């Protein structure tokens, strides 16, 4: 069941891993190197906006996963497990990706590595612990979700810390507001 749920979740969340973060990292590196505060804010806001849209589209798929899994595998729960994994993925691509990208661009590679390794340890550690505690597949996928939510919160704290040290990085609330106004067309061509 777990393998089928992971496979189904991978297909359902394919838009989340479309490479937007990689393209944004290149644009961010360029604007950061030129000390262009406005473009840096725009690139980060673009990433937030695109990530929001990708997450929104992915969320629209979630209610159908149990019915698809029942049709394909004669098991409604595989789709439920897949939906939990997709929700964990949404948490992982949001502020976690933003924070790791910012750490990379400002040259805090050890911090980026620590955050990335912590994500894997938390997600798989909780999954293993919940499974060992007897919760089975539901425990395993829930462990991924708990780990992703914890790292989501840690990433917000990391962003706040990093933003205070790096003047070009805007506060999170400023970034969220700017995401509402930044042009998608301007940067979308660099993403695809």
Helices and strands, with pairings:
Blueprint: H1 2-12, H2 20-33, H3 37-61, H4 65-73, H5 76-105, H6 109-165, H7 172-179, H8 184-191
Task: Report what the structure shows.
This protein starts with a helix and ends with a helix. The chain has 8 helices and no strands. It is mainly alpha-helical.
Task: Provide a concise account of the structure shown.
By secondary structure, the protein is mainly alpha-helical.
Number of strands: 0
Report the total helices: 8
C-alpha Rg (nearest Å): 18 Å
Largest sheet: none
Content of β-strand = under 5%
Low-confidence regions: none
Which key phrases capture this entry?
192 residues, 0% strand, 8 helices, single chain, mainly alpha
């Amino acid at each position: 069941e777990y393998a089928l749920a992971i496979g189904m979740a991978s297909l359902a969340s394919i838009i989340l891993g479309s490479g937007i973060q990689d393209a944004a990292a290149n644009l961010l590196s360029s604007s950061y190197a030129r000390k262009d505060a406005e473009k840096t804010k725009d690139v980060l806001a673009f990433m937030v906006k695109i990530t929001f849209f990708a997450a929104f589209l992915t969320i629209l798929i979630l209610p159908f996963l149990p019915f698809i899994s029942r049709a394909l595998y004669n098991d409604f729960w595989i789709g439920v497990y897949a939906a939990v994994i997709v929700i964990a993925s949404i948490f992982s691509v949001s502020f976690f990706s933003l924070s790791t990208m910012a750490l990379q661009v400002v040259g805090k590679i050890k911090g980026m590595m620590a955050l990335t390794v912590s994500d894997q340890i938390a997600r798989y550690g909780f999954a293993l612990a919940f499974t060992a505690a007897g919760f089975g597949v539901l425990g395993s996928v829930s462990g991924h979700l708990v780990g992703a939510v914890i790292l989501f919160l840690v990433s917000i704290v990391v962003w706040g810390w990093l933003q205070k040290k790096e003047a070009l990085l805007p506060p999170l609330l400023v970034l969220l507001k700017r995401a509402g106004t930044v042009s998608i067309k301007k940067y979308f061509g660099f993403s695809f």
